[in-house]
């Protein structure tokens, strides 16, 4: 019975039928997207999403990170049309222990998207979403930003907002991408990846509330 239950659970996840509700749950309560509100001094905070080596052995941003870079660069261009100072804060250390941090790896890609180096600030110590919020909060509290915009994927946004609120910051959410399950009969590897991502975020949210209840956060 345990073997049959295990196989059934694996199929439900890999075929997308259980992955879809997990993703919907993880990506729930996301504020509706709209035009960002910029102030004369605006900070666009982009969270890291990992790095990987390409076929030539070059360290590059992962897929979701590339979408966050595109979104951040687009917001920067919009910001420059109406604001005096626009800053992109890239937050991401080296939890994978590659040859460079996420923030340092993403920098050339932002430069290619026409974000000037003078307007980019790198936070390359954080290893978790909680540390993203902690280290960025230390940086922005010493500056006079009138608006903060948080860029990340839909699945990470609920937990990221909790962490930033924990440090007294209320950034505007800007979703870079949303994940979806592929429903079918045959197992798909990407459904398993999405299920793992959704569970990671849901467990992280539960952990946050438990830690707050016992006074650790």
Question: β content, as a range?
Answer: 15-25%
Radius of gyration: 18 Å
CATH architecture of the largest domain: 3-Layer(aba) Sandwich
Helix content: 40-55%
Mean pLDDT: 94
User: End-to-end span in angstroms?
Assistant: 41 Å
Shape: globular
CATH topology of the largest domain: Rossmann fold
The total of beta strands comes to: 7
The H-level CATH homologous superfamily of the largest domain, spelled out, is: HUPs
Structural class: alpha/beta
Structure description:
With 217 residues, this protein is an alpha/beta fold. The protein folds into 2 domains: 38-178, Rossmann fold, CATH 3.40.50; 181-217, no CATH class. It has 7 helices and 7 strands. It has a 5-stranded parallel beta sheet, sandwiched between helices. Strands 2-3 form a two-stranded antiparallel ribbon. A hairpin with a 5-residue loop joins strand 2 (51-53) and strand 3 (59-61).
Task: Describe the secondary structure blueprint for this structure.
Layout: H1 2-14, H2 19-26, E1 41-47, E2 51-53, E3 59-61, H3 63-82, E4 85-91, H4 102-112, E5 120-123, H5 129-140, E6 147-152, H6 157-166, E7 172-175, H7 189-213
Parallel strand pairs: 1-4, 1-6, 4-5, 6-7
Antiparallel strand pairs: 2-3
Write a compact overview of the structure shown:
The protein has 7 helices and 7 strands; from the N terminus they run ααβββαβαβαβαβα. It is an alpha/beta fold and 217 residues long.
């Amino acid at each position: 019975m345990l073997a049959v239950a295990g196989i059934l659970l694996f199929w439900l996840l890999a075929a997308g039928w259980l992955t879809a509700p997990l993703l919907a749950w993880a990506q729930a309560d996301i504020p509706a997207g709209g035009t960002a509100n910029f102030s004369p001094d605006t900070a666009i905070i982009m969270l890291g999403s990992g790095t990987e080596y390409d076929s030539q052995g070059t360290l590059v941003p992962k897929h979701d990170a590339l979408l966050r870079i595109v979104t951040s660069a687009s917001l920067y261009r919009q910001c420059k049309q109406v604001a005096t100072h626009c800053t992109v804060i890239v937050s991401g250390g080296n939890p994978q222990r590659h040859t460079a941090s996420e923030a340092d790896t993403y920098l050339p890609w932002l430069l290619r998207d026409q974000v000037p180096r003078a307007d980019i600030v790198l936070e390359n110590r954080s290893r978790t979403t909680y540390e993203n919020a902690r280290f960025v909060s230390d940086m922005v509290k010493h500056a006079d930003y009138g608006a903060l915009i948080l860029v990340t994927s839909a699945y990470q946004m609920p937990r990221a907002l909790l962490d930033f609120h924990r440090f007294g910051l209320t950034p505007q959410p800007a979703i870079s991408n949303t994940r979806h399950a592929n429903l079918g009969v045959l197992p798909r590897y990407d459904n398993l990846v999405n299920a793992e991502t959704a569970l990671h975020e849901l467990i992280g949210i539960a952990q946050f509330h438990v830690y707050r209840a016992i006074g650790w956060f």
